[in-house]
Amino acid sequence: MKLLDGTAIIFIGIQWLQLVYKSNKLTIIRRKYMAVTQGIKLDDDTSKRLKKLSLQRNRSAHWLMRDAIERYLTEEERYERERIEDLAEYEDYLQTGRGISQEEMSVWLEELIHDKNAPWPKQK
Fold first, then answer.
1. 28-63: pLDDT as tens digits
2. Nearest Cα to 42, choosing from 57, 75, 64?
3. What is the pairing mode between strands 6-12 and 25-33?
4. What confidence tens digit (pLDDT) does each residue in 55-87 have?
5. Which pTM value belongs to this model?
6. Which of 10, 61, 106, 114 could form a disulfide with 54 if both were Cys (CB 3.0 to 4.6 A apart)?
7. Alpha carbons 51 and 43: distance in angstroms, whole number
8. CB neighbours of residue 2 within 10 Å
9. Average pLDDT over the chain, rounded to an integer
10. String of b and e for 50-63 (b: at least 16 CB within 10 Å)?
């Protein structure tokens, strides 16, 4: 069987691939996942509020829910990254004892009031 040079889009489960076949070489140039439908149950009050806001914003309730979920996930992922970073810094402090004293931090904050580019205090 001989394949002709060209482009194809193939669906596999919930993803699609855009493939290019040229000179006996197959290359994936794009991979995307299709949207997955999720169900959510809302109480009557929340549903009414959502409908009212969607009319006020001239957006669908679906769009508002997707936007809210995206914002929530972005914020929670940021929180988790910071939490992991804080735990690592605390673990480093426990192992090394290096840190910045309250007095040094207070002096730095006073400097920061007058000079927005005051250098960060050094750990000891």
1. 666 666 667 788 899 999 999 999 999 999 999 999
2. 64
3. unpaired
4. 999 999 999 999 999 999 999 999 999 999 999
5. 0.58
6. 61
7. 12
8. 4
9. 83
10. beeebeeeeeeeee
Separate counts of helices (H) and strands (E) for the chain: 3, 3
pLDDT at residue 1 above 50? no
- Token pair 């290019």 in the structure block, residue: 20
* Strands, sheet with 15-22, edge to edge from the N-terminal-most edge strand: 6-12, 15-22, 25-33
Token readout for 83 is: 């939490």
Q: Which helix (H) or strand (E) holds 25?
A: strand 25-33
Q: Closest Cα partner for 98 from 59, 72, 67, 124?
A: 124
Measured in residues, the chain has a length of 124
Angle at 29 between CA 28 and CA 32, to 5 degrees: 90
